[in-house]
Protein 1
Amino acid sequence: MARTTPPRPLDMQLLFPELAAYRKDTVRLHPRPGNPGPRESSLGGPLLWPQSVDWPHCDDDHGQFSPGAGALPLVPVLQLFAADVPELPFPSGTDVLQVLWCPFEHGYIPQPKLYWRDSSTCVGELTEYPRPAGAEEDYLPDPCVLHPEQVVDYPSWDLPDEVAEALKERFDRVGKETGYSYWQHLSVADGVKVGGYPTWTQEPFWPDCSACGQRMAHLLTVNSAEFDGASWRTWLPVEDTPDTGTIWDLPYEDRRLIQSPPGLMFGDMGGIYLFICQQCPDRPYTHWFDCS
Ligand SMILES: [Zn+2]
Ligand SMILES: [Zn+2]
């Protein structure tokens, strides 16, 4: 079953033509619990891994878990094939992005690692993958299948101050008349996503590439939730909307499987944002984290 974000309830271009310059496409991945195979795009699923390449480990000090334990295996987070998410900036000769991370605390969050691969060189189908004992449960994703959907983002925290100032009165008026807040309901798509704007919960931090010095691009966001107590009104997919009542009337576990399907939690409903430099040939990357 596909997942479809409802169209924005208001005509953004008519109401706020100034936003046109800041519009960006983003791909909501819509993870949902499932049983993905190694040749499928997934969150927390098995990866298509090159037989000749050793599984990556984290050598950092993890306090009580490191002494004598040796290096700890990373865990699969995302596998994205070009056929499913062509919007990703695949370096030439590659058609799959694999994101793994070390599921122990690295400054309040796990430590991600990225691999761009040519799937035809990946013959070792790894179906059993490690889940290191003692890792943070909040950082171990439950396997999910994906339902990529392209939608439009408008900036919230990233909207320049002068534009926000110029639009303030109109935002307020529309909010009063319709009940839709630009910031909470109409701007940045919520959830796990590729491209567009990060789902910041605090002041943005855009890293510069350590190799060339240019500002890096937002590659993808791994979020604690697909929507919150406000954003569900516009970002809850049509297919997940109950026939009667709202999503908040569902039993807790039923809602949880729609709101936080992989069972990830970063701080207090935070997000991990991955950035990449598209100018440098070896695609340097880094990450940032914030929460409310
Ligand atoms: Zn580590
Ligand atoms: Zn660079």
Note: DSSP finds five helices and 16 strands in the chain.
Protein 2
Amino acid sequence: MDEAYNELRWNPLIGAWIVVSSKRRGRPWREGVCPFCPGAPETGFNWRVLSLNNRFPALRLDARTSRSSRDIYLVKPAYGYCKVVVETPEHQGDLDSIPFNDLKLYINELIKETRELCSDPNIQYVMPFRNKGEEIGVSLIHPHSQIYALPFIPPRIQVEMRNMEKFWKERGECLLCKILSLEMNERERVLYFNDSFTAFLPFFAMWPYEVHVYARRHLGCLCELDEKEVEDLADAIKVVTSMYNNLFDFSLPYMLVFHQRPCKVSADYYHFHLEYYPIHRDRDKLKFAAGIEWGAWTFTYDSLPEEKAAELKAALSRGLEKLSSSGYRIKGKAI
Ligand SMILES: [Zn+2]
Ligand SMILES: [Zn+2]
Ligand SMILES: [Zn+2]
């Protein structure tokens, strides 16, 4: 018998749920055969973008707990969804090289999934994210993202909500709209903008080459993007990713997360944005969340963010040049 447990355990010290899963169920992928290419058992043919259920989900609808809660040791079923979004039928590439039309379909797929998953009464939060590169533990190279639909609002989003709400109440404006206007005034850290999105290395970056992409209009989630904004988001993603891949002489590993407001809270103060966290601090050095970063949640930044922004600006112009010589029509401007 296949005894698998998927449970949430409460960490009372930091006040956060930990998603615990024992033996992961499911057959392993067939060695040497890409499970995301067209024609694979789960993908079939005639698609450009595809959502699949993760075969080894940490969260599941039929989650079972291994024990019951005891005193302050709280246990709950890890109810939820873990999905994979295959971004293109092409086996290789990154968000800068997959066809632009597929990129738009990809964003529309994230919108559709966010809507559907949020409509489950037990789901509180939907987070699409993308991990790229072996250094980040990604073994399948076929371009794909993941979506976790959680039965709680994750701590980092709660912290952002708290600060955005506080600013909204005290200052009568949105924190991220404010940051956008400060960045556009200073321009030193702004990398690229089009009609609907602005990409910049934040004043308060934690990772050396961290980049945020903010919607220029105040909106709360993927579901609120209009058609033009979907197109502009695809453009911003393509350009930022190409910038990263032209920073060094290799394709840069990164994590990309979509931060949107929760499903069941109106949170008018929340402002939709993307955050990219590459893990390099130099061409041949990685930045680790080590003792002080992980043990204290205090990040150290070993240069000035403005210096790293200047490096990214140079990479951006190389990236833009390559994109236009490949025939892509760039929608925005570099700064
Ligand atoms: Zn493939
Ligand atoms: Zn705003
Ligand atoms: Zn955020």
Note: Residues 305-325 form the longest helix (21 residues).
